[in-house]
Amino acid sequence: MIVKISVLKITKYEDLISKYENKIELPCNLKVGDVFYVSKLEKPDNLCDSAWETLYPFIKDLLNGKGNFFDGWMKNPYSAMISCNDGFRPVTFYLELINN
Q1: How far is CA 49 from CA 20, 73, 85, 98, in A?
Q2: Which end of the chain is more exposed for a tag (fewer CB within 10 A), N or C?
Q3: What pLDDT is attached to residue 1?
Q4: pTM of this prediction?
Q5: Are strands 35-38 and 91-98 parallel, antiparallel or unpaired?
Q6: Rounded to whole angstroms, how far apart are CA atoms 45 and 94?
Q7: What is the pLDDT, as a whole number, of residue 7?
Q8: What is the full DSSP assignment across the chain?
Q9: What's the number of domains the chain is made of?
Q10: Which residues sit opposite 9 in a β-bridge?
Q11: Which pLDDT score is estimated for 3?
Q12: Given the DSSP bridges, would you call strands 2-10 and 35-38 parallel, antiparallel or unpaired?
């Protein structure tokens, strides 16, 4: 089994960044349309650690045949719409179990 991770949306809150964030060098290098594939529970190259920590529990469950998160939240029961936990520039990911 394989989980496909698709970057669907990237939001950036400049007002919050200027008010609260210390300047950081490279916050995120993802782009809308980026795709990653996971067949083992190993973080894909170029996916940040913070995003991986957020996605990992859902990916683990999908790879183990589980789905139907939150009692039927998604039309496809073997998928999830998850955002990373960066409050300044959240990235929205679509996770889906695909057959290889």
Answers
A1: 22, 26, 11, 23
A2: C
A3: 92
A4: 0.91
A5: unpaired
A6: 17
A7: 98
A8: -EEEEEEEEE---HHHHHHHPPP-S-S----TT-EEEESSS-PPTT--HHHHHHHHHHHHHHHTT---TTTT-SSSTTEEEEE-S-SSS-EEEEEEEE--
A9: 1
A10: 92
A11: 98
A12: antiparallel
Read off the tokens for 45.
Answer: 């190259």
Distance, CA of 83 to CA of 26 (rounded, Å) = 19
pLDDT for 59 = 97
Per-block mean pLDDT, blocks of 10 residues, the chain (100 long): 97 94 83 96 92 96 94 94 93 90
**For residue 23, what are its two tokens?**
């300047």
**What is the reported pLDDT for 95?**
98
Residue 61 CA to residue 66 CA, distance in Å, equals 5
Range of 36's domain? 2-98
- The tokens 């650690």 sit on which residue? 49
